[in-house]
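U., I forgot to send this yesterday:
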Amino acid sequence: MLPKKQDADTQSEIRAYFNRLGLPPPEDEPSCTRALLEQLQLAHVTRIPYENLDILAGRPLPMTWQGQFQKMVANRRGGYCFELNGLFANLLSALGYEVTTYMGRFLRGETTIPMRRHRVIRAVCAEGTFICDVGVGQSAPRYPLELVPGRIQEQFGETYKITREPFFGYVIHDLHRGQWRRFYSFTEEEQLDIDFVMPSFYCEKSPDSIFNKALMLSIKTLDGRKTIDGQLFRTFSGDGVAENRIASATELNALLQEHFNLDPPGLDQAGDFLARSQARA
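Result:
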């Protein structure tokens, strides 16, 4: 984890991270405020995408700060929840926030109780305690949610609340077509980087995993998100959903650069990704 006491190397990494987020370099000791937390999370979800390219390529995913920084900042890639929220948690800790990471259950769309396979960040500053999450490819908060059960929290045309339940612990809900639905839950056992190795291995390698079948990419916009699901590129906005089928490796790589802020793979690998995604599209 990045040390809270910032030496020259740490400051250099933080400046590189802010540059990846499209933000100006921070002060040497920035104030840990709610406003900065909101600025950072919004920049993160609109600049560093949710993606599974390494899983499809068979490359092990990094569960350490050093590996995540190299992949997503230095090499201009994205990741999924274990990686994205691991990277973000370390940044917040280095900036001076009090940070704890938890394991959560992703509940949206589930009819039975699912395994714990989602990484969650709690960040504390003088203005309150917040749940931060930059690792969800579906619709999700662009700003941190204040950890206050029962409070209705609106942002970017979306509405959320947090409740507590005896089994699930804290439960994040979103308002969908006039009805509250469970989003994800977590309990308050602190998790270390090593605790995410086993669930990530399941997501990477299990034949039952949804993550190793086809292309899955998503990046937020101010009024929606852009996704690649299999061979389909979609843009969600206030005007609805626009959909196009990706016809070639060259087109895929152009989309990755233009819409997902990624350095693309070689054309042969991009073509392999599309071929593996054919059944899903």
